[in-house]
Amino acid sequence: MTTTPPASGPQTEPLLPQRAVLVLLSASFMGLVVGGLTYFSTGNVAGAVLAGLTCTGVSTLALHQLIG
């Protein structure tokens, strides 16, 4: 019975760096909160989705600059 050494290279590297995961998860959470609050405030689904997506995009850029 032969054993092979563990693979090195692209298979062992994470898909995203830890910093990118933190930025994207934080931005997504903020977008969900803003979208939910907008929906509860106005009752308009389309407006809430647009507000959430806008917040997610803007906070992604801001967190990218802030967390570095």
What keywords describe this structure?
mainly alpha; 2 helices; 68 residues; elongated; 0% strand
Secondary-structure blueprint of this entry?
Blueprint: H1 18-42, H2 45-66
Helix pairs in contact: 1-2
Please tell me about this protein's structure.
The structure is a single chain. The chain contains two helices and no strands. Helix 1 runs antiparallel to helix 2 (45-66). The radius of gyration is 19 Å and the shape is elongated. With 68 residues, it is an all-alpha fold. The longest helix is centred in the middle third of the chain and has 25 residues, at 18-42.
In short:
The protein has helices at 18-42, 45-66. The protein is an all-alpha fold and 68 residues long. Helix 1 runs antiparallel to helix 2.
Radius of gyration, CA atoms, in whole angstroms: 19 Å
How many beta-strand runs? 0
Strand content: under 5%
Overall body shape: elongated
The parts where pLDDT drops under 50 for at least 5 residues are none
**Average pLDDT level:** 90
Main sheet summary: none
Tally of helical segments: 2
Distance between the termini: 48 Å
**Secondary structure category:** mainly alpha
